[in-house]
Amino acid sequence: MHTITEDLRPLHAAAVRATVDLVARATPADLGKPTPCAGWDLAALLAHMTAQHHGFAAAARGRGSDETVWAPGPLGDDFISRYADAVTDVLDAFAVPDLLDRPFVLPEFGTDRPFPGRLAVTFHLVDYVVHGWDVATALGLPYHPAPEIVAATLPIARAVPDDENRLAPGAAFAPARPVPPGADPLTEILLLLGRRP
To answer: Which residues form the signal peptide (predicted)?
Structure first.
């Protein structure tokens, strides 16, 4: 992935907070709905999203190697408030002044090698721009991230390796799909990351 020099945390925070509003639109009756994530209903997706926030928060605090912090738990009836709490957890953890230079251990990326915080922010940003679309699609809601968020996310999506790892069970993204000429930036992001917009 290319070198990231800009502090993307303000855009990251806006993108992640926008998912709180989407998740708040879900009802218990929606949890069985299919999502664009192969094999996942909305309940599984929200459990994953909630756990990932806590995992990245733990990684920001130097505890990312503890795989239990990444494990999704049962949603429960309070899944909306628990999701909002998870967002608060990760945004608080990401707000510290030296975050961009902290080492992040992210075991789900298949390596013990730490990533610099500024790169970890990009991983989380692209994930939640795409997962926001996943939730909106499952719920039949419009999804229009701010243009500056999409503009910051597009080069990250372009830099995600499109290799055999995308074929592995549980891979974060499916193989990239062809991007037609003139595709808008959000559509390009989704296609590059294997979604079917």
So the answer is: none
Question: What is the model's pLDDT at position 4?
Answer: 60
Host H or E run for residue 185: helix 185-192
Domains and CATH numbers, the chain: 9-192 (1.20.120.450)
DSSP string, 93-147: HHTSTTGGGSEE--GGGT-SSPEEHHHHHHHHHHHHHHHHHHHHHHHT------H
Q: What is the pLDDT of residue 28?
A: 96
Question: How many whole angstroms separate alpha carbon 59 and alpha carbon 89?
Answer: 12
User: Phi first, then psi: what are they for 5, rounded to 5°?
Assistant: -110, -25
Residue 61: is it exposed, middle or buried by C-beta count within 10 angstroms (0-12/13-18/19+)? middle
Task: Report which of 48, 56, 58 is spatially closest to residue 79, judged by C-alpha positions.
Answer: 48
pLDDT band at 108 (very low <50, low <70, confident <90, very high): confident
Strands (E), the chain: 103-104, 115-116
Alpha carbon distances (Å) from 5 to 64, 76, 92, 118, 144: 23, 40, 21, 8, 26
